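Lab meeting prep.
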Amino acid sequence: MYIELKGINKTFGNYKASSDVSFGIEKGRLVALLGPSGSGKTTILRMIAGLEHQDDGDIYINGVCVNQVPVRERGIGFVFQSYALFPYMTVFDNIAYGLRTRKKDKEYIKQRVEELLDLVGLPGLEGRYPEQLSGGQRQRVAFARALAPNPQLLLLDEPFAAIDAKVRKELRNWLKEMIGKIGITSIFVTHDQDEAVEVADEIIVTNQGRVEQMGTPVEIYKNPATPFVAQFIGESTLLTDYARLKGFEIYKGQRQAIVRPEFVKVVDSGLEELHQGVYEEGTVWSTSFRGNCVELIVEVNGIRLKALQSLEEKGLQKGDKVSVLVYRLYVVHGQETHLLQNELLKDGYTFYI
């Protein structure tokens, strides 16, 4: 592993920011630290950088324990949420700052800055000041400045948080492409699951100072290891008694379950005759247009479920009687989850999503 954290603990007063955090990252990977506010993700990033020091545990970079290595000597580029550009310096001088402090010669600095301006898509803007740039351009300058000294590791603390939605989407794609080109190991902090899923090779989900799960975006989404991950990733509904739904029996005495919208199929009443005995009656509680689909809240046997409806389907309204099928769910079993399939679908019924 290129980056390794072993048994990391960090406390601020009475607050446990990191609790026995351990994980490893392979060289060249782009990894997201994903979690809600206060989950410990930024603390982990700052400890890797050396901006905070862990109470105990070890941090390794490229096989070397860096516990006592100063920030400047860790070979890390850091991109801050607020850009942290020097307002009185031009784009050229901002990017060149780290190179000048390392006493690089003028010709090397000029060549390196021009190379980085091309890399981040800002050639010709070297004479501008930060106030003359858009938010997306400022963030690209911040990336270039972090990359200038050829760091062995790039750390990014919510790099897109201060940028509007459209530019943020563009920068996500750009970042993934750029990291792929240069091959630098990178870790970025985010609380936006869409951002993590779209950009990262792997995701580390944090909660209350602990690592809940680490894996590829597909692994995390399809096989959540804990109830927290199952609820945090995707848009889920927590049920207190899933046995009230048709086709499900209690698993190991556990009555709580988590249902995602894509696990719920809703059709206009009467159409369930195509699959008689699988659907059950429900009522549309509310509808919300989401741009590429309609989000439904339906009530079945006193349980409210979230479902998604294609714009191509017949539009449903509040109060409409519908037929509902839940075809799978995650049973909450202690600190683990178990994927449970609808039993009726195992008995020879054909079901089309």
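Slide two material, second protein:
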Amino acid sequence: MFKKDDIKTGLLIGLLAPLVGMFGFYFWKFRRLTIVEFVQWLGIERHLLTAMISFSLLANAIVFTVYVNRHIDKTARGIFIVTLIYVIAALILKWVY
């Protein structure tokens, strides 16, 4: 998977890496809560949602950097596209809530 140079692979990795980042945020800050309680807490404290999205984008940045450094450019392009979509969503959430 790390050697395949394909935009579709990059899109898939770009979608999955932030999920890993979101779980990392959960375990880092809120491991005492259950997942259900955590989601409810995100509904109450909406500013945490944008913080969690920003933290999850860090996972995308790490994966993107790995692919760029290995010169697997098409996959890196897919990761970058998904990252831009996440950034736009985070900004919209920040401005709306």
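Talking points for slide two:
Residues 7-96 form one domain.
Residues 50 and 90 are 6 Å apart (CA to CA).
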